[in-house]
Amino acid sequence: MGNVSIRFDRFPGGLRKAVVFSFDDGREQDRRLVQAFNRYGLKGTFHLNSGKFGQEGYINAEEVADLYRGHEISAHSVTHPFLEQSPDEQIAEELIADRRNLEAIAGYPVRGMSYPFGTYNDRVVHALPVLGIEYARTVQSHGGFHMPDDPLRWHPTCHHKDMVGKAEQLLSSNPYFSRMELLFIWGHSYEFDNDDNWELVDKTGELLGGEESVWKATMTDIVSYQNALKALRFSVDRSLVHNPNALEVWVSADGEVVRIAAGETKRLR
Fold it and tell me: Would you say the C-alpha torsion 138, 217, 221, 266 has a positive or negative sign?
């Protein structure tokens, strides 16, 4: 009968589409943004500069845990320097200290970051794994819905000013070949005040919030799921698969959508 054909083309629940929101700096407008996300059932990854807590225009350290509950707290360095202009020791200090400060508040490991000012170079990228950073977001929008090839150079789909149109495009997308499609939106909450366009949040929430065909994920959710797919172990003909992860995963096997539970060994044919 030949080997089983496997495609990594499904998110949890067998879904093919997902959305991630990624916002920087921990500005006071995050309060309004998080309220809107909670109202619409959306999730955000919020990249925070722990050294700026309590400064004018920024959130306070005391409110972080409650404010971002149900979302993801992520690193953005302590003081928001240009990392590519910093010595190695300062890069390590900025990111390790930010992780330590945020983890003490969040109560879980901080696994990723976004680049301050969106700038970086190969030296910065190569330093990240040993500092406990598994993903890092850039500001170089690509306009597409593809999954990240390199999580340490994770380019978003679009800035939030374009998110309504991209949300509509995601919902109407029906690619000929089945694949996972990720709408990855980045921005700063204070820009909604500056541009007086908070209606973009409501329009996007109305489009995606109640849409059951779209997985609402954080950046760590996406990375963890990708890692879980990569960890699957198949027999030579791929008729058997073992899932060593604590996460259930979904794949297509000979065109059929299959759920593989955590710890399960499953026959696919």
Answer: negative
